[in-house]
Specification:
Oligomer: single chain
Helix content: 25-40%
Largest sheet: 10 strands, mixed
Number of helices: 8
Structural class: alpha/beta
Order of helices and strands: EHEHEHEHEEEEEHEHHH
Number of strands: 10
Distance between the termini: 44 Å
Length: about 280
């Protein structure tokens, strides 16, 4: 059994990631680490290149931000598609320790007919993966129960996927950053079945997200612009309610405009137009 970790960075130092630190100090599993660096700041890029070279970590990046879906697909192409090869997707702010692999190994051994294994992910609000889509919005749940599986979606973070899944599926590169994971899960359910997903209920991982933490006005403007484009593509692709989508997008623009005391978010909403 081989675990292939994919870590995508954006203007973040590789050496600060919990998984990277624990891999280098507590390594006891057959594993490969692939770092795709979407960073655009020269100093951080040089630090990451140097760190990865020193520690013999597979590093890819050229100073451009290609988005998450492209980064995932680029690395997945390099991984052998075999039944005992597993891909674990990581975010740079994932609080993931290498000791968590015990949960994956135990779950794969006891439920070996599954294709995806995923933990419970919590943010500062509560359980945000698994989540349930209502009115075009992924809603937090109070408590996960197995009977909810058919209604649930999941985020990529810490998801463990059998590599042979990628013989039939890949991430949609029309989506730059947002909705990538939920799009992938919808595609997976169409190609396989929901009972091929296993939730590791006793593995709870905490993570910070830009939608929860407070950011600067410039970072939120950029982030909202990406979200508007991705969310409209996702909504159209899966034939979700356009009316609900536009309400959600406009509400977020209005909320951010009030938080930052600027109408620029409203202008971005209208600037990109309706797809």
């Amino acid at each position: 059994m081989l675990f292939n970790f994919i870590l995508v960075l954006y203007n973040y130092e590789c050496k600060k990631n919990d998984l990277v630190k624990s891999l280098l100090t507590e390594y006891k599993y057959p594993a490969s680490l692939f770092v795709f660096d979407n960073s655009t700041e020269d100093e951080i890029i040089l630090k990451n290149q140097s760190f990865c070279k020193l520690n013999q970590i597979n590093y890819y990046g050229d100073g451009l931000n290609y988005g998450l879906s492209y980064a995932y697909n680029y690395v997945i192409k390099l991984i052998n598609k075999e039944i005992n090869n597993w891909v674990i997707i990581l975010d740079q702010d994932t609080h993931f320790n290498i000791s968590f692999l015990d949960y994956y190994i135990q779950s794969i051994a006891s439920n070996n007919n599954k294709m995806i294994y995923t933990p419970i992910i919590k943010d500062s609000i509560g359980i945000m993966s698994p989540s349930i889509e209502k009115k075009n919005t992924m809603k937090h749940i109070e408590d996960y129960k197995t009977e909810l599986l058919c209604k649930c979606s999941f985020i990529n973070s810490c998801m463990c996927i059998n590599s042979i899944v990628f013989l039939n599926l890949k991430y949609d590169e029309n989506l730059f950053l947002d909705c990538i994971d939920h799009d992938f899960i919808k595609s997976f359910k169409l190609n396989y079945s929901v009972d091929k997903i296993y939730v590791i209920e006793n593995l709870v991982i905490h993570q910070e997200f830009s939608g929860v933490t407070r950011n600067t006005v410039l970072s939120d403007l950029k982030r909202y612009g990406i979200f508007v484009k991705d969310y409209r593509i996702y909504t159209k692709k899966w034939k979700l309610s356009n009316f609900q989508a536009e309400i959600k997008l406009f509400y977020r623009a209005l909320k951010l405009s009030l938080i930052h005391h600027t109408p620029k978010f409203i202008l971005i909403y209208f600037k990109w137009g309706k797809r």
